Amino acid sequence: MWTTPARLRAKNIIGMNRRNIRYIGRYNNRRLYPLVDDKLKTKLLAQEYGITTPALIGTVTTQFGVKHIREMLVGHAGFVIKPAKGSGGKGILVIERVEGDRYIKPSGARLSLEDVERHVSNILSGLYSLGGSPDVALVEALINFDDSFAEYTYEGVPDIRVIVFKGYPVMAMMRLSTAASDGKANLHQGAVGVGIDIASGTAIRGVQFDRTRHDHPDTGHELASLHIPGWETLLMLAAGCYEMTGLGYLGTDMVLDRAHGPMLLELNARPGLAIQMANGEGLRSRLDLIERQPDGVSAEERVVFSQHHFARSSELRETA
Fold it and tell me: Where is the signal peptide (predicted)?
């Protein structure tokens, strides 16, 4: 359905030009981009700051090293291979389990060792990296996501995106993998986006392919009851990424592991704008309010401020 610029302004929607010039260009120093554009650097930085990330099994940096991937994977029932400089979920290979000489994806697809080696080789050649530059393949332990999300996702790990501006959590959504997204939590590939109330960690509304959804397309489970446990801890983790990186406009992607709690997956210095669609509200008024706040406020105070000023009621419950 078509809309007009006036309607978008009334909903406080920001577009890419305003995001790039007003927020990214003004608040993100380009020299800091490598800290978040390279997932390996992000992981090492997070370790310095005591922020939990998925365990690193190993890295592959050369084509010669590709032939040693089998030895690296021995003893690991499941794992994830991803490009250090990838974006948008491209190039991420999730292996749920190993059966004999076959590597099984969450969809049930069976890969050979040669398939895995080819994927790693493609990562190194820069097939999935920003700008096509040569890359490094990261091999991480598989995340055992919190059991409370089992009915809300399909063949993949759900993650939580929080936009952080000047250290304040501004807007959040949960991304639920689907059959259409091949088990990846990527909205452009068909995952379901669920807007999350900053105050409570509960679902506001759901969307898939830019259309409203009230249930998960594969499991059939309704979305209204979705609630993220340990929500304030997760917000504190997101807010702390401001001090960790020095970036003023930031996307933080996190997961809830059943054993380790909130874990940082990756950071994004140019987070997308689909989060506005998932929340049914634009970012502009929230960003304007934060720009008027003084500097030097602690992470705890910033989280309390956001929870107080950005509380929302659930459209899913209102329409159920």
Answer: none
